[in-house]
Amino acid sequence: MDKTSRVIKHKLKARINFGFILAIILTLATMTACSQLESAIDSQINGLTLAKYQQLETGMSYEQAVSVLGFEGVEMSRSEGYGISLVTYQWSLSMKNITAMFQNNKLTAKGQFGLE
């Protein structure tokens, strides 16, 4: 085998190895994304229960509330001024609803509808 043939063979092997490695990386990335999506859907389906609502405590942060409920709420209103920030979030699924108000990122009020 001459030098040119060896170089071509070596480059071809490198491309095949790179393609194989890229395929593995893409497969793993897809599996991870699907797993994360499945986890997010499970959290949403199971997230709005009376037990979860009762775990929301005055003074907890929005991030802590998200951790309790399993997914982020939708910002419904925001008011800021004089060093005070008031934000209201809502979590809704089907006929279940949790609304929470945060003042300076601390839970100050909450309400629910349809939780069992």
Structure characterization notes:
The structure is a single chain. With 116 residues, the protein is an alpha+beta fold. It has helices at 3-47, 50-55, 62-69; strands at residues 74-81, 84-93, 96-103, 106-113. It folds into 2 domains: 1-46; 48-116, Beta-lactamase Inhibitory Protein, Chain:B, domain 1 (2-Layer Sandwich), CATH 3.30.1450.10. The protein has 3 helices and 4 strands; from the N terminus they run αααββββ. The chain has a 4-stranded antiparallel β-sheet with strand order 1-2-3-4, with no helix packed on it. Strand 2 (84-93) and strand 3 (96-103) form a beta hairpin. The longest helix has 45 residues, at 3-47. The mean pLDDT is 80.
Which value, in Å, is the CA radius of gyration?
A: 25 Å
- How many strand segments? 4
Helix-strand string: HHHEEEE
The 3D shape can be described as elongated
Estimate percent helicity. 40-55%
The top level CATH class name of the largest domain:
Alpha Beta
- Count, helices: 3
Ranges with pLDDT <50 over ≥5 residues? Answer: none
Average pLDDT rating: 80
